[in-house]
Amino acid sequence: MSDTVTFKIKRQNTAESSPYWENFVIPYIPNSNVISCLMDIQTKPENSKGEKVTPVVWESNCLEEVCGSCTMVINGKVHQACSALIDKLEKPITLEPMSKFPVIRDLIVDRSRMFEALKKVQAWVTADGYHDLGPGDRESQSIQEVAYKLSECMTCGCCVEACPQYTQKNNFLGAAAISQARLFNMHHTGKNITDERLDTLMQEGGISDCGNAQNCVEVCPKSIPLTESIAEIGRQVSGKILRNIFKA
Amino acid sequence: MSRQRVIVVGGGLAGLAAAMKIAELGMSVLLVSFLPVKRSHSVCAQGGINGAVNIKGEGDSPDIHFYDTVKGGDFLANQPLCKDMCHHAPYIINLMDRLGVTFNRTPEGNLDFRRFGGTLYHRTAFAGATTGQQLLYALDEQVRHFEVQGIVEKMEWHEYLGAVLNNDGRCVGAVIHNLRTGEIMALKGDAVILATGGPGLVYGRSTNSMVCTGTATTSAYLQGAKYGNGEFIQIHPSAIPGRDKLRLMSESARGEGGRIWVPRKAGDSRSPKDIPEKERFYFLEERYPLYGNLVPRDVGAREIYDICVNEGLGVKGEMKVYLDLTHHTPEFLNRRLGGILEIYEKFTGVDPREEPMEIFPAVHYSMGGIWTDYTPTSDGLIDYQSPNNQMTSITGLYAAGEADYQYHGGNRLGANSLLSCIYTGLMMSPGVINYVKNLPEAAEDHPQKVFDDASRQWQERFSDINKMNGSENPYALHRELAEQMISNVLIVRENSKLEATLDKINEFESRWKNITCLDTTDWSNPVPSFINQLWNMIQLSKVITKGALMRDEFRGSHYKPEFDLKQPDDFQPETYLEFEKQKADGNLNESAFDQQHLAYMKRFAENNEKWLKTTIAEYKNGTSGSEGGPEISYEDVDTSLITPRPRKYN
After folding, report:
1. B303: containing domain
2. To which CATH superfamily is domain A4-109 assigned?
3. Is the pTM higher than 0.90?
4. Whether B83 and B120 share a structural domain
């Protein structure tokens, strides 16, 4: 085992400036992950040429793969940096920001488009108020298990990074938002605005933009059945189109 | 009066609950967060949220929940607040269910409940093992809905630096730092709520997220707000070692039957599966037959420390014990604990369904925090209309969630944190609005100079930080601070070490001035912000360490062996109630008690007389030559509802 680890990091100083690659060589320490190595670089910010440089900038918070912050492209694959263990990665390790979002700086990107998508699909339950209105509806264990899986989505961006249809130039909502629409359409009161959600998903950027590449489900760190969600929303949209025809 | 609004700082459970409730009541909210609110630290909470819904027909009730909470906290919590929180817990769980949280279900379709530490009842509602994440998402969705309606405005990627105080010392806004552009500005707000979580990063690696520096609450302390019970830091018995952080292994693993053990033979090198049952030491089950693996966290952490350090029985001679779930089927485990088992497997490469987990204690939660006020009603609950609820000692500045000090006394029970966060956010909101509506003058109507002065002061501070050109690396200095705190202000505390730590912290404070600002660019640069956070962490570490040094007793998470009152093994807490009753009636019959018990009860009463008090830290500016620091005083605790008594869990 080598006593150092080399990182090739794609850096970018500002949103407008050009990216460049910089290498860092740090001591190998057992049980490291990408985040602990980035932290090591912070304590001694020198590139492989021995030049003092600014520490690499990244986004992270929980470090246990539940917040979604530290998503980046590691050795060409989109992944959370916290759960990317050094011992399991080929060396040298390359780190790049996600390509489907505007770069802010270094490994930080702006994922606000994903949160905007949650607004568009109205990913919420409409409540009468937050006072005591008694218990919610009963629910079967089997439905809870499906809903729970969908509700683990942390808006991390892996699914849309891997999606060939999602680009910085179009307005595809992406698998995460479509799956959230499915989650709320199956909730007892969330489904009260199913029609509004489907209206959005029938428009440009909606369900028809999915090219069925199925990359999303492959890369989802939470193993959310995203293609099932897309298929289910597809059925709901088709049903609505049919109903519209009969109404007309 | 001009248009008014409330600034909520922090987008975890407490901040989102407050934003949601205030928006519902019709007042505009400006929600400021260091990062997108959906990524807040509340997502790390795993096991569940407590509420005595009594689904299992065990006879559980809010009053028993209240008693367990107060006892778990070693009687240091103000009781009316705890009582009100526990009485509202079932409603809060129902509310979160209505808002779409995917709680686990019973076969009939009711909410399912499991056991947690410090109680004998099934009181913890849960959504797999990612309950905090699910609760946070439900509130995030509601707040997003208000955002679309224009009632809530979000400013993510902004860090709170300090309060704007007017000439009367009233808070009329917040100075915030745009973490993208570096711009520092003063925002106008008629009330400011700090819902900024805990300070785990003072200890470097903990179960806390990277944003949990305690900077915002420390800033309030440095501006004159009182800080309560700083020395009460919860050490969670079960975490997974890691170089970047210590990942939590939820108490729910034990709530679902997980068993803690070590090999009876020190240094046993066999694989755990090869160690036969009779050679395993289930030390919690043996020492605490009643609560077993579900003793409160302070007790569990101390026992693990004792087994590993004093008895030398840690797994492979290290500070680790086994947490064993392998007697359950993988199907059962996946349905009820899936999230945490996946985390363990991902980060260690070992499947906990097949092999016992190796876990150890880690810094987890701060019971202490910014001092806050409340107004009780005559029946021992809380007057929701009172503007005092959750107000700090700075008028108009509020605190909620882990940032405050009120609910957990000397030790928090598992699954009470999610409850206290949502509860404070909801409970305080009507009072905050009453406060705002009755102000003589809106923040908007204050002279601009008040805000310009505040932002200028912080701009100068950051300009100075940018010029720092010494030899210290701020991240390396942070690691040194953390090492001191981990070594000396953790599970077992000794005065000589605490004194030495205070000296060390003062040294770090001097060395902080010799930091070099590694990055002076003005775009998305976290370094100046971190240097400022580090200063605050140094200040807070003084509060924690000095509070610990001065509190010469053993209470909850604060354990000084030297002051252990040594409860006799056969002592029953009810005896103490009789003792107190006789004393109160003026006819104490000493001969009626076992003499050892009597002596212990006298020690206990005397100790409570002196130490059953809230620690208050107030920042005092340094005089020439010395830095500022905390001045410690003590405040009475409201114990009007449940008589304090010795804790016992076996």
Report:
1. 238-361
2. Beta-grasp domain (3.10.20.30)
3. yes
4. yes
A55 touches chain B (CB under 8 A): yes
Cα–Cα distance between B557 and B549 in angstroms, integer? 14
B216 and B301 within one domain: no
Nearest chain A CA: its distance from B394 CA (Å): 29
> Looking at beta carbons, which residues of chain B come within 8 Å of A33?
242-244, 347
Q: Is A197 on the interface with B (CB under 8 A)?
A: no
DSSP characters for B249-288? --THHHHTT-EEEEESSTT--S-GGGS-GGGEE-HHHHH-
A104 vs B201: CA distance, rounded Å: 26
Which of B43, B144, B479 has its CB closest to that of A124? B144
Asked whether residue B313 falls in the same domain as residue B424, the answer is no
The label of the residue with tokens 């003072």 reads B202
Which CATH number goes with the domain that contains B197?
Answer: 3.50.50.60
Please give the sequence-ordered ranges of beta strands (E in DSSP) within B321-474, or none if there are none.
Answer: 321-324, 357-366, 369-370, 397-399
Do B351 and B420 fall into the same domain? no
In-domain check, residue B47: yes
- Which of B428, B446, B464 is the C-terminal boundary of a domain? B446
8 Å CB contact between B211 and B328: no
B126, B219: one domain: yes
Residues of A in contact with B109 (CB under 8 A): 138-141
Report the residue from B346, B524, B527 with minimal CB separation from A55.
B527
Q: How far is B157 from B160, CA to CA, in rounded Å?
A: 10
Is residue B1 scored above 80 in pLDDT?
A: no
What angle (nearest 5°) sits at the alpha carbon of residue B525, between those of residues A99 and A116?
45
Q: How far apart are CA B75 and CA B612, in angstroms?
A: 8
Instruction: Output DSSP code: residue B317.
Output: G
Q: Please give, one letter per residue, the 3-state secondary structure of A94-110.
A: EEECCCCCCEEECCEEC
Fold for A112-128+136-247, please state it.
Answer: Fumarate Reductase Iron-sulfur Protein; Chain B, domain 2 (1.10.1060)
Does residue B126 form part of some domain?
A: yes
pLDDT, position B2: 78
Q: Which run of H or E residues covers position B187?
A: strand B184-188
- In this prediction, residues B408-420 reach a mean pLDDT of 98
Preceding amide of B474 cis, omega within 30 = no
Last residue of a domain, one of B333, B361, B389: B361
In which band, very low, low, confident or very high, does the pLDDT at B627 lie, cut at 50, 70 and 90? confident
The residues of B annotated with a catalytic role in the active site are 297
Which residues, in sequence order, are CB contacts of B368 under 8 Å at separation 6+? Answer: B227, B228, B229, B230, B231, B232, B233, B405, B544, B547, B615
Percent of chain B with pLDDT over 90: 97
pLDDT mean over A76-100: 97
Q: Give the pLDDT band of residue B622 (cuts 50, 70, 90).
A: confident
Report residue A78 CA to chain centroid gap.
9
> Same structural domain for residues B166 and B216?
yes
- Within 8 A of B180 by CB-CB distance, chain A residues are 104
- The strands making up A71-74's β-sheet, listed across from edge to edge, are A20-27, A4-11, A93-96, A71-74, A77-80
| Residue range A182-194, pLDDT digits in tens | 999 999 999 999 9
Q: Kindly state whether B480 is in contact with chain A, defined as any CB-CB distance less than 8 angstroms.
A: no
**Total H helices, total E strands in chain B:** 16, 21
- How is residue B130 written in tokens? 């990612």
Judge if B75 and B110 occupy the same domain.
yes
User: Same domain for B275 and B209?
Assistant: no
Domain boundaries, chain A: 4-109, 112-128+136-247
By residue count, chain A amounts to 248
Which of B53, B134, B151, B210 best probes binding to A when mutated, by most A CB atoms within 10 angstroms? B210
ipTM of this complex > 0.85? Answer: yes
